[in-house]
Amino acid sequence: MIWEAQTQNKFKILISKIPVFHRRITESVVTQQAEKIAAGRNCNQVEDQDVIAAFFTDVPSPFYSMMVRLLGQNGFDYKKYGFPREDKS
Asked: What is the reported pTM?
């Protein structure tokens, strides 16, 4: 599946800021989930909302606050899409 160019660039920058020992698995899991979410919306490309939903779906609770911080710092407006939907603190 193709990715919207800005979304892909922001995602790559965000991934580069994740601790090295988690980077590859995070990239793989979030990529797969974002593409699945986009397909579920009958969209032919991954957009910000898909990446955001993938992170909120698959990130374990201990990494939640770091994920929220990194999303915000890298231009992903998660509040625009109604996240966080539940408190994971």
From this structure: 0.89
